[in-house]
Amino acid sequence: MNIAKMPLLDALAEKMRWHQSRQNVLAENIANAQTPGFVSKDLAAFSLDDNARAPLSMASVSYSAESPSHIAISSFSDAGGFGVDNAGGYETTPDSNAVTLEDQMMKVTSNELDYQTVTTLYTRSMRLIRTALGKAA
User: Fold this and answer.
1) How far apart are CA 12 and CA 136, in angstroms?
2) Rounded to whole angstroms, how far apart are CA atoms 137 and 132?
3) Dmax (CA) of the chain
4) Per-position DSSP letters for 109-124, written without gaps between them
């Protein structure tokens, strides 16, 4: 049996991939904080039921110039295989931009702390399994 494919470790790895995808979406929100008409996005909450069997694909990035002074990056629409939740209810500036930098930075910090927690759990679980098998940690 492949140790990395144990249900607990597989779930933790999936959660880490979700946090990585969420970081990409939040970075896109922050990068477009000054873009007129941009509405911030977030990933749908992580659920093992929804994501346990879904194949992951990497988000593609392509460049297209709308004007000589702008380069647009395509949105992370598939968000690494996780559903995107178009966040609403935030204040909108006169140019129809709905990105609040303070809110986005709080989400980034929370995402980073959660990712570190999941990484620690994964590492300690692997160390525990190696110890149980009698291999050097």
Assistant:
1) 22
2) 10
3) 64
4) HHHHHHHHHHHHHHHH
**Helix, strand, or coil (residue 63):** strand
Burial category of 13 from C-beta neighbours within 10 Å (exposed 0-12, middle 13-18, buried 19 and up): middle
> What angle do the packed helices 7-31 and 101-133 form, to 10 degrees?
160
Phi (first) and psi of residue 75, to 5 degrees = -70, 155
SS3 72: strand
Q: List the one residue out of 104, 124, 120, 125 whose CA is nearest residue 32.
A: 104
Contact 83, 40 (CB under 8 A): no
- At residue 71, the 3 state secondary structure works out as coil
3 state SS of 37: coil
Q: Is residue 119 within 8 Å of 16, Cβ to Cβ?
A: yes
Matching residue, tokens 């979700």: 18
What does the pLDDT look like over 94-133, one tens digit per residue? 566 778 888 999 999 999 999 999 999 999 999 998 898 8
Tokens of 58: 């990497």
The reported pTM is: 0.66
